[in-house]
Amino acid sequence: MELISQSVKRIMEGCKERARDAGLCFEDETLEYIVTNRDLLELSPKLMIPTLYDYWVHDVEVLRGKGQYELYPNNPFETVINTRPAISFYNDNNPDWLNVMIFYHVLGHIDFFQNNAYFRNTWDYDFAGQALADKRLIAKLRSEKGRWVDYIIEFSRGLDNIVGYHSELAKFDEPEQQQHSRALNYYFDIFLQEYKKVSTSEYIKELDRYNETVQDNDSGGEEGFFSEIYAQYPEFESLMEKHYRDHKSKHYDLLQFILANSEMLKKEENAWMRSIIEIVRNTSLFFQPQIRTKIMNEGWASYWHEKLFLADDRIGGHEVDFARVHSAVASLPRVGLNPYALGMRLFQYIEDLGNKGKYSIPFQQVLDTQARQKYDTGANAGRKLIFDIRKQCSDFLFVDFFVEQEFIDMHKLFVTGRRLNAERMVWEYYVKSKDAGQYKQMIFNSMYHPPHIEIDAGKTKNDTLFLNHHFEGKPLVTEYIENTMLGIEYLWGAPVKLETSEVVSVSPGGKSVGGQIPPVERPDDEPKITWRRVEYTMKNRKLSKKEL
Fold it and tell me: In this structure, is residue 274 part of a structural domain?
């Protein structure tokens, strides 16, 4: 693995200039490496971070990848990681014209990483450097503790899909300029009513005084108002800080709760385990936004590599080659889901909505089909709209809001069903629905959605940790429950209980024919599922279950 040559680096810098002229925004510094196909295979299993800590599963994946490459050589074009500076890897046999297209694709990814709000927790530090420090720490611990290090990693990784990503992200919603709003809430909601216990008339007078002060620029606005409060009530600031400290959110994810409350981990001889759990948790938090924005991220990069490369004079003579490569990346499959293709076409669709003024209430009030097709106010606001969407949305919001019937009809999309051909004894696929709602649900079903499991503080007593699975229509994977709870019991140092829902029976939908359920799936065949609550208990490494 080595840095790209200076001539290729100049190509990359030229691509950056054109990308910025088109509106993309990213930091100046980037690193580009040339690697072989095998190198890329080794990077991918470790979540594309070469400095990530070593773990036996990674080694298994690398060996499996190498074995597959011997049988079926492939050509992965690029890999880009969200670090500071951003690092990208390119195949050593890519021609220059292909590198130009790939550079545009990579710059689309980097722009997305550095501007999408769901990546806020990754903006302020270099994960590659932190991962290297973590890797060295784990290597040191492995030399001292042996295989127990891998046990702790495995137990922790069994829970790293339910880390509190959204609660961590919420911490970024209070920038410094909102601190006065924090004081405002305390002053009117707590200080005046509970501490000073003012009358209603006095409260209204104070509210009016605040409004007048804020509207009067000479008074310094809200800052001027609170400077008077701090002078009049010297105790105000300390009381406010105590209130927010006492009422600070106690919401923990499971790994956080174990770190804070496990008596086993509080023992001095087990302090090293805490470092490993924190490494696994922080690593998971770093990758959560990528998991939740895959359609948008890949669609945004594909949108820009197409738009920028088609306008680049270096495409000359390679139009057919580009069409072949691009179609392999961005073609819509008739069965299944291609996030590159879906995301790219959604951004193109949204841009068209903005350009024609269709992203508006007046357009939504137009009901005539022909009038909707011809609607065009010449707003020309599509480019700004897609940049706003890129900044604010995750995959769920992106799909939920913009996958609508007109988009489905435009691209002739549909949901497929499967039925058994009893005569030939083969499964057949058929068009099950062209409804936008069902297509949207198919996409939702393919998205990352970890189970919602919380610690039940009321039932967690006598050292027994009680977990409650908030059932959302999908049961836990039964085969993983025992090993996962075994790991939790070890980290917690005491018995663990888990309440969840399981299937009692499944009744096929549809009508029976001659007293028999037909071996054919119909569009309206929805099975009726009966659920029951059960409680699993892991005690002394033995799992038991009872119905509730």
Answer: yes
- Rounded to an integer, the average pLDDT of 13-39 is 89
Q: What is the total residue count of the chain? A: 548
CB 163 within 8 A of CB 253: yes
Count Cβ atoms below 10 Å from residue 4 Cβ, excluding itself.
Answer: 19
519: helix, strand or coil: coil
Tell me if 213 sits within 8 A of 221, measured CB to CB: yes
**Mean pLDDT to the nearest integer, 492-506:** 91
On the question of pLDDT at 523 being above 50, the answer is no
How far, in Å, CA of 220 to CA of 408, rounded? 53
Per the structure, the complete domain to which residue 525 belongs is given by: 452-547
Which are the contacts of 402, defined by CB distance < 8 A and separation ≥ 6? 346, 349, 350
Within 10 angstroms of residue 59's Cβ, the number of other Cβ atoms is: 13
- The dihedral through the CA atoms of 229, 233, 238, 239 has a sign that is negative
Which helix (H) or strand (E) is 430 found in, with range?
strand 426-433
Given a contact cutoff of 8 angstroms between Cβ atoms, the answer to whether 474 and 447 are in contact is: no
Query: Which has more pLDDT, 23 or 222?
Result: 23
Half-sphere exposure of 15 (CA within 13 A, CB side): 30
Question: Same domain, yes or no, for 19 and 144?
Answer: no
- The whole-model pTM stands at 0.81
What pLDDT is stored for residue 533 in this prediction?
Answer: 94
Q: Would the pLDDT of 201 be above 60? A: yes
Q: Is 496 contained in some domain?
A: yes
Tokens for 144? 């001292």
- How far CA 504 is from CA of 297, 472, 473, 521, in Å, comes to 40, 16, 13, 22
